[in-house]
Amino acid sequence: MRKIRTHQDIIILFVQELLFSLFRLPNTTSEEEVKMMTLKQICIALVLLTLVLAACSPAASSEKPALPGEPVYTEADKGMPPAAPAGDEGYGVDNSAYRSSTGQAVERLVVKTANLSIVVADPGTTMEAIARMAEEMGGFVVSSNIYKTQTDRGVEVPQAQITVRVPAERLTEALTMIRDQVEDPLEDILSDNVSGEDITETYVNLQSRLTNLEQAEEQLREIMASATRPEDVLNIFNQLTSVRGEIEVLKGQIQYYEQAAALSSVSVTLVAQEGVTPLSIGGWRPAGVARNAVQALIDTLQFLAGAAIWLVILVLPVFLVIFIPLRLIWVGLRRWQASRRARRSAPPPAATPPPAAT
Predict the structure, then answer these.
(1) 26-46, pLDDT tens digit by residue?
(2) Degrees (nearest 5) of the Cα angle 285, 290, 292?
């Protein structure tokens, strides 16, 4: 008996038995019934033959099944990547750079930074209050500095700078508490700037690279476990060490971005009131008058510079375009008139005397 090894053999045997049963003539003597039965059998046979050819065509182009004792070759052994399992499309090494494109929700990471410059009565005391506020909110002080500066009148006044980090969700509350340190928000807040940087794309790319390197590390460990030659083990160990170093660097960058997004930076410059109070004499402020005079001088210089630009770019070319042709015409007319007057004032030529008779 022939040994059946594949489902194609089973299908072929089944079709053979079916064809044998179909082409067996019925026990009848009617010639018309025999013809009708034969026609039906031929149609059914053609349909079955078409189905068999369609089912066996992929098998003809593929490899034959391995016999017992023969080595089995997989796609990976031929240098071809194995087929991806169902449901894993889009998660390969090359397609994992942007996980958000696959439909996975990614929380946005935004690094917020605030910079303020305010006028306070005592910069040192205010700096200590801001430091306590940051610690109570769960943040910390990055740097603080207090020093003295001189005003235009030669008076030494204290000034301080402090940078703190506070939780991002409490940044608005921290800025409100800092602004409350001034007496007059309209006059004493010299500058107030809050900015944000979206680092979501960079963060997702780092996560994807980390995943790829971790998969490569796992594969290298498996290869190293099955390696037998010492030189192969040493080569794989060097590659594994390099990959592990890159993994640690990526983890450090990811942690830095996470902490930067979780804690917002607030930098505050504290200026003493003595350093910004203008000189006042009987209600008259020379500084204000001088500022207005300087502003008027700047406006005048701007007007003169604008007029000079208009003169050079517009007026001068138009004047040259009009003046040069008119000048040429005028010079031509003068020369024509001069030549005409010269011809009129010239004496008539002397008459030639007749020749003497001989």
Answers:
(1) 555 456 555 566 666 666 666
(2) 100
